[in-house]
Amino acid sequence: VQLVESGGGLVQPGGSLRLSCAASGFTFSSYDMDWVRQAPGKGPEWVSTINGGGGGPAYAESGKGRFTVSRDNVKSTLYLQMNSLKPEDTALYYCARDGGYCALDSWGQGTQGTVST
């Protein structure tokens, strides 16, 4: 199993980032996938999930109305579109595979998103 995130960077408040997570080594469409972030000095925070078929997206309150999760099962890639970004969205963003019963059993290395002037 390999998960490789990309798309992070430095943006100003109000800006946007689109994160990607390229998956390999397993049948991507068979698994729900999640995004989790960790801000400096804080614990991990669940951000979003999407089921294997691309339905049932769910979001933490912090991202509702601003974040959109999606996936392309042909490309085995997970996405997170983040709009109207705030400084408090600054974090290392990880994608993770849901191995069942909401147990995240595989993680990428993370991609850094920084929101600052």
Topology:
Layout: E1 2-6, E2 9-11, E3 17-24, E4 33-38, E5 44-50, E6 58-59, E7 67-72, E8 77-82, E9 91-98, E10 104-107, E11 111-115
Parallel strand pairs: 2-11
Antiparallel strand pairs: 1-3, 3-8, 4-5, 4-9, 5-6, 7-8, 9-10, 9-11
Descriptive terms for the model:
7-stranded mixed β-sheet; 117 residues; 51% strand; single chain; mainly beta; globular; 4-stranded antiparallel β-sheet
Q: How would you describe what is shown here?
A:
- The protein is mainly beta and 117 residues long.
- Helices cover 0% and strands 51% of the residues.
- The strands form two sheets. Strands 2, 4, 5, 6, 9, 10 and 11 form a seven-stranded mixed β-sheet that branches.
- The protein is globular.
- The relative contact order is 0.31.
- The protein has strands at residues 2-6, 9-11, 17-24, 33-38, 44-50, 58-59, 67-72, 77-82, 91-98, 104-107, 111-115.
- The protein is built from no helices and eleven strands.
Q: What is the first-to-last residue Cα distance?
A: 37 Å
Approximate strand percentage:
over 45%
Order of helices and strands: EEEEEEEEEEE
Radius of gyration: 13 Å
Give the helix/strand class. Answer: mainly beta
Number of strands: 11
Mean pLDDT: 97
